[in-house]
Amino acid sequence: MKKVILISLCTLLAGSCSADIPTENLSFPEEEAMVESFSRFYTPVEYTSNPGMEQLNLPLATEDIINLMDVLLIAGQSNPPDFLDETGFAVFPMPRPVDNPVHAFEHLDGRDQPIFVSSGIPLHMLHIFFDQILQEVETEHLSPDLLIICRKLYQSNLNRNNTLNAAFFAVPLAFLDDDFTPHSSIANKVCNEISLMRAHEGFGFSPIFGYREDYSQYVPRGHYTASEELENYFMAMMYMGRITFILTGGNPCGPDERFLVSAEAAQEMTEAALLIVSDLNTINVDGAPLKNKWQRIYEITAFFAGFADDLSASQYQAAAEAVSGESINPVTLNEQSFYDDFKVFVAENFAGPAIYSGTGASIVMPDSSGEFDPADFQTLLSKTTGFRFFGQRYAPDSEMLGKFVFPNITGNPRGEQRFMPSGLDVAASFRCEAALQIIEEDGTMLYGGYEETLDSMQTMVDDYSEEDWHATLYMCWLHSLRLLAASRGAGYPNFMQTDAWNRCTLSTFLASWAMLRHDTILYAKQSYTALAGCAPGMEEPVPSAGFVEPVPEVYAELRATLQMARRGLEYYDISNDNLSSRFENAESLLETLQSIAERELAGEMLTERDADFLKGFAGYLEGAIAWGAITTKGLETSLIADVHTDQNSSSVLEVASGNLDNCMVIYRRADGVVEAAIGPVLSYYQFNQPVHNRLTDEAWRDILATDPPARPDWTGSYISE
């Protein structure tokens, strides 16, 4: 949702307009209508949360735990870790790596010990639905329509001899159509552009657009390595999502100048963009405007991943019609007066981008005293303002990552600049206590402007309305993580009230967030750092069937998210009976988890039905997440995504979920018995990687198997290696 912080293009394009426009009047009207449309698919699921569990004093008296050694044996341990009595839980890497939750729970079958169901398991289930459905939609619905759109717009612009547009659409066509050959007038530029994309070595000058583009982004990753068709769709859509038809230019121009391109180049690009918009409205396919197909692709992808951070067809059409007083007239597009008025209208009426995505490899120069001005961040945005055909999408977490680095953040007391953000910045913006504690301890807060930026990002999150949180599936997922990050007090199990558990929850939060970024890696606009210039007396108690992490509000939100997804797919007529049955199985599983969690919190014993469910949990989970009865491909937790690029070090921030760990939790049952339960939990990694070697899931799994990176330092309080 690009709602709370809107940047006036009058501010960004200083000197091109004279009026001061209130930021609350700036908007993306087409997106606002879609927000209302998408949020109507969401209906909250009611839940109860009355924390009143039997308390268990810490430090533990381990001799009171009826099954401690039995559960430790399952975890491959002969003795409890030293910190167990203080934390009430411990996490152990599995003796043999496992990244399939069904297999992890099957390993616990027949052990006659309580299983622990972590909130990370249903969060992982959400990833599977999100990822698998998106693959199906892209393959069967979006890619065929995208091919039609590109063919029509390529031919139209070739006929009118607009080589810029013809070359622009020739690039995706080269990937989407095996038989396509670009016209001789543009063939060299198109082939050179494609060569740079396939080499994906980093920044280079675009042969077609003349400014620097980050070609390292064109590595098919995420689920786009699953088939050749998805790889080609990725390459085509990434190009149309990143390439910008720059709105304003001037001289001098270049990466370290005020303007990225010359005035003449910007005017040519703007005219070309408006011709595209005109074609969308005037070219018919099957008796309907071509824009209908464009709109369908945009809306479906927006339903999943959010709305464009850059100006697109709807805004350019509205501005052109307002300036000319009629529908877009190609004859007037090259008139200087029209172009000048068009720029002013756009600046006065539409919000500018909130995320700098590396266009042009912009450089921020120091002043005469060698200091950098945080206000230069706005200049970065102004240089790249313009039209994108299927612009990458605004994501609040991308805005956060981009705001927590140079030049918005200045140096620390040692004179160091902060060029790379951290997943902790996102969690802290969501007021996750563990993340706030860690960044306070590690000195992050000492960077100039960090505390003020954190306050701004927290306010942005706090100010989102319920409609904002449920505007898209992406936002619903983030809202589930926000609910997970809440602190747990009296009435919750004692282990959930410890700092160590807060850090374990932080790991689950970030692992699920990494999955979200993995699934939307094609659409979510990645942020960039600019270049810097220079019980006794009773019979022997019997262990129960298990324990569900008591966060019913999270399970309720996940149920509501799946229901929203199902309604949206039905609305766009891309559902089927097989998909509907999978939704039903998943929603049923979440409903049972929510019901058990509510009873646990209220201090009630498990029912016989609850026990049967937990004893057969592996089977229920398999029925909910196994697509096509295959329980391996697509269920892996070992997933990776690059989420931020630092141009200074030519490196990217990789965030990843790894193999599953075993988590043992200690709690007091409603009947007073103290027992241990064990089950799989998500793991989290983050590290820097050379920009020319952005990792795929397959490469990440090879690393995990041969030379896994270290876990974040803050996991040491609860992981027993």
Pick out its properties.
single chain, 721 residues, alpha+beta, disordered N terminus
What does this 3D model show about the protein?
- With 721 residues, this protein is of the alpha+beta class.
- The chain has a domain at 136-393.
- Helix 6 (120-159) runs antiparallel to helix 11 and helix 7 (163-176) runs antiparallel to helix 9 (228-242).
- The protein has 26 helices and 17 strands.
Radius of gyration (CA) equals: 27 Å
Q: What's the arrangement of strands in the largest beta sheet? A: 10-13-14-17
In terms of per-residue confidence, which ranges show pLDDT below 50 for 5 or more consecutive residues? 1-29
Q: Give the overall shape.
A: globular
